[in-house]
Amino acid sequence: MGTASSLVSPGGEVIEDGYGGEGGEACEIPVEVKPKARLLRSSFRRGPRVIGASFKSTGSVDLEYAAEYERLRKEYEIFRVSKNNEIASMQKKEAKLDEENKRLRAELQALQKTYQKILREKEAALEAKYQAMERAATFEHDRDKVKRQFKIFRETKEKEIQDLLRAKRDLEAKLQQLQTQGVQVYSQNDSDSDDNQTTMTVLGSEPSMGSMMQLQQTFRGPEFAHSLIDVEGPFANVSRDDWDAAVASLLQVSPHVPQALWSNTVRCYLISTQDTKAELDIFIKKHSSMLRQMCECLGHFYLNVYFPEEIAASYVMERKQEIERSSVCVSVIEDCEEAFVRNLDGHSLVLYLRTEEGSTLTGPIRQLLERVNTADKAVVDHSGFAEDGANLIYAQLMNIIKQELLGFEGADVDSKDSVIDEGREEDSGDVLWDLHDEQEQIESYQQAYNSTTSQLGFQKYIDRLNDMIAAPPPTPPLLVSGGPGSGKSLLLSKWIELQQKQSPNTLFLHHFVGRPLSTSSELVLIIKRLTIKLLQHFWSISGLTMDPSKILEEFPRWLERLSARHQGNIIIIIDSIDQIHQAERHMKWLIDPLPVNVRVVVSVNVETCPQAWRLWPTLHLDPLSPREVKSVVTAECQGMDLKLTKDQEKKLERHCRSASTCNALYVTLLARMITSGRSDWSLEKSLEQCLQCQDTMSLYRLVLKMMLNSLETDMLCLVFASHNGVSESEILDFFPELELPVLSFLLHHLNRLCITTLRCGLISFQHLQACEAVRLEFLGEGSSSASYREKLILYFNQQLSQDHVTWRVADELPWLLQQQEERAKLQLCLLNLFVSQNLYKRGHFSELLAYWQYVGKDKSSMATEYFDSLKHYEKSCESEEDMTKLANLYETLGRFLKDLGLPSQAVAPLQRSLEIRETALDPDHPSVARSLHQLAGVYVQWKKYGNAEQLYKQALEISENAYGAEHPSVARELESLAVLYQKQNKYEQAEKLKKRSVKIRQKTACQKGHMYGFTLLRRRALQLEELTLGKDSADSAKTLNELGVLYYLQNNLDAAKVFLARSLEMRQRVLGPDHPDCAQSLNNLAALHTERREYETAEDMYERALEIRKKALSPDHPSLAYTLKHLAMLYKRRGKLEKAVPLYELSLEIREKSFGPKHPSVATALVNLAVIYCQLKNHSDALPLYERALKVYEDSLGRSHPRVGETLKNLAVLSYERGDFERAAELYKRAMEIKEAEPSLVCGNTPSRHSSSGDTFSLKGPAPPPHAPR
């Protein structure tokens, strides 16, 4: 009854409606039906059914009900039909709405997609806009840069063109003038080496005479400045000035020399017998510690190498290696043969000879003594107590170490002075940098070059590198990529060596990056080193900032400026550049266009190469071929006298087929592992164990696991925990029970297995894989590494507590504390003034700054902390030595604050340093000049140029008085003044000062007493000497002559005499005594005897040479005039003026025929002859000669040339002697005007060392001083 789907009839029958009658489904009745349903139900229930009613009433009721029912049924049917129509209509509308909904949803989705697309297009457009703006900015930057480069290039070339055109016009005019006079023109190569460059140089002037009343008869000619040596051949026209420049350039190249000369360790090899063991024992116990302390304070290590007799036989190989590596050998006479004969590279030798009263020397010992004395080795002859003998050995050894090895010739070095390197700082001007970093790079280059003796087929890579370098500019950096240990360093070192031989005009700047976190991977230090090397090549290292960010920013500017001045190419090579932290971020100059003549080559690990660099031209190193693998293994086996069987070779060949097993390092390590296996392993077992390793890392771990003992393990862990490595002496301190023979064996073993190497005196890892293998095998957890760092911290803290601050303490201790995150201890370490001073003065400014930033201090806080520490330290200073150290500390603090950009705070410590030095030392002490120099630098920053100029001039005056006019400290002051004048736009004065500074640096560069001084030149001399050991020939005699000239230019007159004499003897035997080549040898020997003031011998040789050349050469030959001139000079020097006159006259005649009457060389001969006439009081003959010479000089050199001034001065003296005072005054005034045209600061009181021939003899006296033999 709850629904209208069924109705009950009055008779109880169920009446089915039309909705469900056919389908059998209940149909839903609309809501509107409900009231009618109620009405229907109510009509059915109008009253109760009366039981027993009449039929009539019942029938009438049924009729009524039926009529009503029929009516209702019709209404219902109409209602149902209408509703069915409505439902159908609604269903149609619903379907239509569904379709509309679907359409709208599809449109909405399409609109959403369109919106997303438009949004992406908008973002892409914005990104493109930003990129376009960046490209526009970059383009503008590049455009401005190219404009600047083009402007510089255009101006340079225009100037060169103008100079060439001007020179061309001058030469054409002179040529026409000579041709009109009918004079034959000779080339300069046909003239002698004295006057063919007359127009290029300046003669020194006479000391000022004050007034005409002081004029004396000081007639002089230019011949005193002329070269005496006859150097026809490869050394023609080479003066000592030119030689200084050439030597300094050669020393910038990294030659391959014995390790004893390049190592940072002074290795003292001791040999004793039972008779002398007491002396050596006393020496080791009493004096070794003092020598070690002295060397460490000077920045070097000291090590006694001693193999006692009872164990010497067990270390034959180690003894041989140590003798070859030793710097100095202390030996007894009985074992001198071993030390002397094996001392092939000329190492220093101290020979201890113990003699007893009444004893005589045997024949062999006497012969050995003669050989030792001939080689200029030290001999200690002693017959007293053993302690006295040990003292004598110590004194002799101390002198050798100071003077021959460390370069402090004649210096009294106090080993307690922790700032002993003050003097060496002068070489670098205001630029502070670490020589250890440079030495480490030199040794890294050598070790990379000598890492293998096998030919690895690198020629194809070298050819491709050459092609890339020769590509037309602009050229992006060249990328050498490969896996770890693929041979990138070896390839680059071999290529550098070949390029240096083939391209002598190319400047190579290379850097080999070590393991991460080491000093060699510090970006600021790398760029600073490259900048300094670049500046050194141009003899100017002033103006370099210390600010780390500015160093990185200014390097491309320096590169651009200096590359424009270099005639050849500049090639920069950086090996393992990907090991530098954030290299891609800080070396953006690699992406910028490089200067036209600059090329950059970098090597990277193929796995860690930055994505942006992969677009550069790349040279990828492929794995080794089977033939190359076999070559490496065979070479290693032959070195150990081993031979693999056919089966073993096949196993190796099958194993080395993948990229990881064909790696150059893997193959080398595999071969050495096989040949140096454990003593209890057979060759087959070693090979089997190695073949289980599929890459280099696993092979290294096998080596570490199976081949090393506990001592070697601890040693490697210490090396890993350190900053830059551990020295041999430090290892001996860590392990007191370890003897040096055992240490030498262990280091040789580790080096053989490609694990460690000695670099700059420190034990470090050969390869990054070896370092990583040590970490994985022994230091898996960080706590293990921290424990070894604690051991190192304790060791260096002990040295610090003993006031023994060396460069090792400053290098290691702050870094170790930083790694341990001990900020408080690090701050205390930095406040040790000598630690900070050591770091700063070695150029580690950025490292010191980083430590303070890690502690959390800003610049002002740093300054305050240092001031407080200095004040506290000053209270304890009492002695003069303490006050000197205090002044150095104040100066260092002032410089540090100035470099921090705090000039106002830097003034106080610099002034305090100046006060202490003036009070404790002397107002004219060189240290005062340093304080004045630094104060002047602060005034320059404040742009108070007048005050700065005054201070620089005071410093210059003090330096010249203390050191002389040609000392590096004088060059530093001159450079600073030049920079100051440039800032004031006084370019002419700045240029003159700069030229003088460059000249001083060139002369001193080859005179440094470094351990490696003239090694390259000695090597070339030995090569030349080897050529003369064969059969006598004219070529051998010529080579001997060249060798003599080589030693002459080095001022080694004794060696020069030996080779020149041998050349003369051989030429007389081969060519005959009257050959012109014999005259050349005689002339050179005469020049050498003249320099040694052996005038009689020189005169005899000159006369013999003149006689030969008169017979063999034509009367007007320039070489004849050459000998005539020098013999005349010698006559004049010895006072034989009458004999000199005809020679000068003949020389003048020859020059007139050779060069014409208006050549400067003729004017020189005229002046020389006039001087002789004046000295003979023959003034009437001298006057026309002077006047004619003056006219020639003015026409050819110009009216303001110094030669004109010299001639005017001589004419003034002559006029004064003749009584023509008015003319004398006029001439003298004009001469002084020419002299004063150059500032007195440039010339000073020192005459120019250049002459027409570029000779270097002094003009102050009649003869050059003799040179002491070396």
TrEMBL record:
Compartment(s) of residence: Cell projection, Cilium
SMART domains given in the database record: TPR
TPR repeat ranges per the UniProt record: 929-962, 1079-1112, 1121-1154, 1163-1196, 1205-1238
InterPro entries, per database record: NPHP3-like_N, NPHP3_ab_dom, NPHP3_hel, P-loop_NTPase, TPR-like_helical_dom_sf, TPR_NPHP3, TPR_rpt
Region spans: Disordered: 1-21, 1241-1270
GO BP annotation list: cilium assembly; convergent extension; heart jogging; Kupffer's vesicle development; pronephros development; visual perception; Wnt signaling pathway
Broad class of the protein's primary localization: other
Domain Nephrocystin 3 helical: 627-778
Organism: Kryptolebias marmoratus
Domain Nephrocystin 3-like N-terminal as annotated: residue spans: 474-599
The protein's name in its UniProt record: Nephrocystin-3
PANTHER family: NEPHROCYSTIN-3 (PTHR45641:SF19), TETRATRICOPEPTIDE REPEAT PROTEIN (AFU_ORTHOLOGUE AFUA_6G03870) (PTHR45641)
Coiled-coil region list: 80-181
Biased segments, Polar residues type: 1243-1256
Keywords: Cell projection, Cilium, Coiled coil, Repeat, TPR repeat, Wnt signaling pathway
Occurrences of domain Nephrocystin-3 alpha-beta (ranges): 261-407
Gene Ontology terms: cellular component: ciliary base; ciliary inversin compartment
Sequence ranges assigned to domain Nephrocystin-3 TPR-repeats region in this UniProt record: 789-1027
